[in-house]
Design brief:
The chain has 234 residues and is of the alpha+beta class. It has 5 helices and 11 strands. Helix 1 crosses helix 2. The termini are far apart.
C-alpha cells in the first residue's frame, strides 16, 4: 500500500487540464487505473482526492465521483465530479452520448481508407477481459460505431484520429484490429510486441461537452505522453 508521502508525490505529478468547484479534469498517464481494482494499486481517483484535500485543506473525507473510465494502458482525458450535484448530470451526459470524444491511435498498418465509419457488433469475453468485433450481429453483442481519419504517416506507423460514437468495452482497440490496424504496443489485440512501459499508443485527445452546472460549452485537449512516437505525431 502506498505511503502518505508517496500519495503526496503522486498528487504533485497530476496533469490537471481543467478545474472548478464542480469538476476536475486530468490528463491520465498510461499505467494509471481510474478506479481501484483487484490489483490493489493506488487509483487515480484516490490521488485526485489527496490533491483536493491538500490544496483546499479539507478536513475529513473528500467527495469525488467517477463519471467514466479509460483502460489502464491508455492515456488522456478523464473527468471527475467534485460535487454530488455534478456527478448524476455528468453520468447522464456520458450515458446519453452528449460528450464528443476524440482519440489518437498509432497503428501498425495503413487503414483501408483515408477516412471511414466502422460499424461492428461487439461481444465481450469477461474471462479474457477482451472484446471481439463482429461484422454481423451475434448473440449478446452490442453495436459499436466510430469514425476514423488518417492524420499522419510516420516512418513505420500511421496516426489515426478517432471520433467515438458508442462506448463499448475496448471498442477502439477491437475495431481497429478488425480492420488490420492493431494499436502499437497492444499485445492483447494483435500487435507483435509490447511497449516497454506496458502502455499502448491510444490517447484520449479531446472532450467537448456542456458543463453540467454552469451550462457552458467546454472543449478540453490533452497533450499525449512524451515519447519519440507521440512527439512525432504533434
Amino acid at each position: 500500500m502506498p505511503t502518505t508521502s508517496s500519495k503526496h508525490s503522486n498528487a504533485a505529478n497530476l496533469q490537471i487540464i481543467y478545474e472548478d468547484n464542480h469538476l476536475i479534469v486530468i490528463n491520465k498517464r498510461p499505467g494509471d487505473i481510474v478506479q481501484g481494482d483487484k490489483t490493489g494499486d493506488m487509483p487515480l481517483s484516490e490521488i485526485v482526492k489527496c490533491y483536493i484535500k491538500e490544496k483546499y485543506n479539507k478536513p475529513g473525507n473528500v467527495y469525488l465521483g467517477v463519471a467514466h473510465r479509460l483502460d489502464r494502458p491508455t492515456s488522456g482525458i478523464v473527468v471527475f465530479a467534485k460535487t454530488s450535484k455534478a456527478l448524476p448530470r455528468l453520468n447522464k451526459l456520458f450515458a446519453e452520448k452528449e460528450a464528443k470524444k476524440t482519440y489518437w491511435a498509432v497503428v501498425k498498418n495503413a487503414p483501408p481508407k483515408q477516412q471511414d465509419t466502422l460499424v461492428h457488433w461487439m461481444k465481450r469475453n469477461t474471462k479474457q477481459n477482451k472484446s471481439y468485433a463482429h461484422i454481423k450481429e451475434v448473440s449478446e453483442s452490442k453495436k459499436a460505431i466510430l469514425d476514423y481519419t488518417l492524420l499522419k504517416k510516420l516512418d513505420r506507423f500511421y496516426v489515426l484520429e478517432i471520433l467515438l460514437k458508442t462506448g463499448r468495452h475496448h471498442q477502439i482497440r477491437a475495431q481497429l484490429t478488425a480492420i488490420g490496424c492493431p494499436i502499437k504496443g497492444d499485445l492483447k489485440y494483435g500487435f507483435d510486441r509490447s511497449n516497454k512501459d506496458g502502455s499502448i499508443h491510444l490517447h484520449a485527445r479531446s472532450l467537448s461537452f456542456i458543463h453540467p452546472v454552469k451550462k457552458e460549452m467546454l472543449h478540453l485537449i490533452a497533450p499525449p505522453p512524451h515519447d519519440t512516437i507521440w512527439n512525432a505525431c504533434c
